[in-house]
């Protein structure tokens, strides 16, 4: 039976390789549950049993590093080092956001204290980076957070998180491509719509077709497909030029500095500074995509910590300096909300500088778009390896060592949305998925450090569950009280106290069940606990409509999971078992319950 299953798998792989672009149903749904309508009907009847199995099932480090990775037939090329990762990290994070978000945060929320807001949000992002770093060193695979969550929180949680973040990657990729057109138009002394095609017969918001965004996306896709090392070099060149523009803004801007503009320093008080830091946190997102490059890094234990942490430190310092420069050039109440740096240079008689700022933003958006395409393709590749998406998407091209199929599919999705959809609509679609996953990863890290299946006593496991629930509830409470209004400080303080004493209890009453092999997040359990609290707290500043969109997206994912993903992954897990892969004790318990 085992030999028969292995032969079937090999036959499917070989058929896929020979056919190239000609796919059949077996390439999309090769699992046993989809061989016939009768098989599918039987699978649907077993939905409850299978759901219990998959909710309780957890993957293992060994499975993610070997069995799951082997589903791609070929290996990705190990061509990246710490130097590449630093520039990829800077390029992924430092886009045009700082040129836009700084204006609103300064004028409406924080005043000159916006530099403190950037520092606070930067430190918050750095906490998430440290949690991601430990996982990515231990599990250097293409799935990034999806793989980490599969190992510690199980298939079901990993799928919901990954589905939401993939949707956000597509939306962000489309919006960056549309923004690229806008900044390119500025450089050419044109309005953005001059480069778009107006089709009056289409609905408003979808009637300004953007061929430039599509062309740029396709060029970036080609670069990402041909070579990861080549993409890294291209990114390094553009990012170095982008940093040069940042240095220009700092040096030239400081020649026009006036210390009197720093008074009053915090006109909106501490609440304004914190509200601004919640907004500016989104200027730091993108680093998680770098963790999907684990399979292409020569020395993960050394290169990943240096690359991830080093790039984030550079970004934090740069953002704080840029914010300080802007506030020294102009009184905070004169800062323009939409184009703060451009207007600031115009105000001091340097109108020509707007072209350099636009040029820098254009290069920044190019590297963000490249990092976005690379990351979402690798996420999708690993998801397909687990059968949660069609397995043919997991194939790695033998010649280039890159996931060509997944890259092309994700780019096509980006292009379709970018071609039709206006920036206003795309901006409103950005959900809370990023913060949701940023909260789950440190939660998974606490589980990893304090619980080992089959070794941790039931009493300690139950304590850990209680502590984690209290950490989550106290963090949610702080975010809710903050969102309610200005006179809820007492509620925030009480929730913060619960969080503090819960984390202290975790620290004092439980011993770590597992130590990191190569590199570990410091200050356990305080650092990941603080990361959870901060990310959940920031969610409290997001509008209710975003939560509705997140709920709708999650509901769609649940429907897909119950109808397709659940049965595909169930069959895939059985296939791995038949190959002799060891499973965790919790999976054995799940199978026992299913049989009963």
UniProtKB/TrEMBL annotation:
Main location, first listed in the record: membrane
Domain Cationic amino acid transporter C-terminal: 519-568
Keywords carried by this UniProt record: Membrane, Transmembrane, Transmembrane helix
Transmembrane segments: 82-101, 113-135, 156-177, 211-228, 240-260, 272-294, 306-332, 352-375, 404-423, 429-452, 464-482, 488-510, 522-542, 548-570
Signal peptide as annotated in the record: none
Pfam family of the protein (one): AA_permease_2
Record carries keyword Transmembrane: yes
InterPro entries (alphabetical): AA/rel_permease1 (IPR002293), CAT_C (IPR029485)
Cellular compartments annotated: Membrane
Membrane topology, from the record: Multi-pass membrane protein
UniProt cross-references to PANTHER family, sorted A to Z: CATIONIC AMINO ACID TRANSPORTER 1-LIKE, INNER MEMBRANE TRANSPORTER YGJI-RELATED
Family (UniProt): Belongs to the amino acid-polyamine-organocation (APC) superfamily. Cationic amino acid transporter (CAT) (TC 2.A.3.3) family.
Stated name of the protein: Cationic amino acid transporter C-terminal domain-containing protein
Organism: Solanum tuberosum (Potato)
């Amino acid at each position: 039976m085992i030999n028969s299953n292995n032969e079937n798998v090999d036959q499917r792989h070989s058929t896929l390789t020979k056919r190239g672009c000609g796919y059949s149903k077996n390439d999309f749904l090769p699992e046993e549950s989809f061989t016939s309508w009768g098989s599918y009907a039987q699978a649907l009847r077993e939905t409850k049993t299978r759901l219990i199995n998959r909710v309780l099932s957890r993957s293992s480090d060994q499975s993610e590093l070997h069995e799951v990775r082997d589903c791609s037939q070929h290996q990705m090329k190990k061509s990246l080092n710490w130097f590449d990762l630093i520039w990829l990290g800077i390029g992924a994070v430092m886009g045009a956001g700082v040129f836009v978000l700084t204006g609103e945060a300064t004028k409406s929320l924080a005043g000159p204290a916006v530099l403190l807001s950037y520092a606070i949000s930067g430190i918050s992002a750095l906490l998430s980076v440290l949690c991601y770093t430990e996982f990515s060193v231990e599990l250097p695979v293409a799935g990034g957070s999806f793989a980490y969550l599969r190992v510690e929180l199980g298939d079901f949680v990993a799928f919901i998180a990954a589905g939401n973040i993939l949707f956000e990657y597509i939306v962000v990729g489309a919006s960056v491509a549309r923004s690229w057109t806008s900044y390119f138009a500025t450089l050419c002394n044109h309005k953005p719509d001059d480069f778009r095609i107006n089709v009056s017969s289409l609905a408003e918001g979808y009637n300004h077709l953007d061929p430039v965004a599509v062309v740029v996306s396709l060029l970036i896709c080609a670069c990402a497909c041909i070579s990861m090392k080549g993409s890294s070099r291209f990114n390094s060149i553009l990012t170095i030029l982008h940093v040069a523009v940042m240095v220009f803004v700092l040096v030239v801007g400081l020649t026009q500095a006036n210390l009197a503009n720093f008074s009053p320093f915090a006109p909106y008080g501490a609440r304004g500074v914190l509200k601004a830091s919640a907004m500016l946190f989104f200027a730091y997102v993108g680093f998680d995509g770098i963790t999907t490059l684990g399979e292409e890094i020569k020395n993960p234990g050394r290169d990943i910590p240096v690359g991830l942490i080093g790039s984030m430190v550079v970004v934090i310092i740069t953002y704080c300096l840029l914010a300080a420069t802007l506030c020294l050039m102009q009184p905070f109440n004169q800062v323009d909300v939409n184009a703060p740096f451009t207007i600031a240079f115009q105000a001091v008689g340097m109108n020509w500088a707007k072209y350099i700022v636009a040029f820098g933003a254009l290069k920044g958006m190019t590297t963000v778009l490249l990092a976005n395409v690379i990351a979402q393709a690798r996420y999708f590749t690993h998801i397909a390896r687990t059968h949660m998406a069609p397995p043919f998407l997991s194939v790695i091209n033998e010649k280039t060592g890159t996931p060509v199929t997944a890259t092309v599919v994700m780019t096509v999705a980006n292009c379709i949305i970018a071609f039709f959809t206006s920036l206003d609509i795309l901006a409103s679609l950005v959900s809370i998925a990023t913060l949701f996953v940023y909260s789950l990863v440190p939660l998974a890290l606490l589980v990893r450090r304090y619980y080992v299946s089959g070794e941790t006593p039931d009493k300690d496991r139950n304590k850990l569950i209680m502590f984690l629930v209290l950490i989550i509830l106290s963090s949610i409470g702080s975010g809710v009280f903050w969102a309610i209004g200005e006179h809820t400080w007492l509620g925030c303080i009480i929730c913060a106290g619960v969080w503090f004493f819960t984390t202290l209890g975790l620290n004092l009453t439980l011993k770590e069940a597992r130590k990191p092999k190569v590199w570990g997040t410091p200050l356990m359990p305080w650092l990941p606990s603080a990361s959870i609290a901060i990310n959940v707290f920031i969610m409290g500043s997001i509008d209710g409509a975003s939560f509705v969109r997140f709920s709708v997206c999650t509901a769609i994912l649940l429907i897909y999971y119950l109808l397709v993903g659940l049965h595909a992954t169930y069959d895939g897990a059985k296939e791995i078992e038949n190959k002799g892969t060891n499973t965790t004790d919790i999976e054995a318990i799940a199978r026992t319950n299913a049989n009963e």
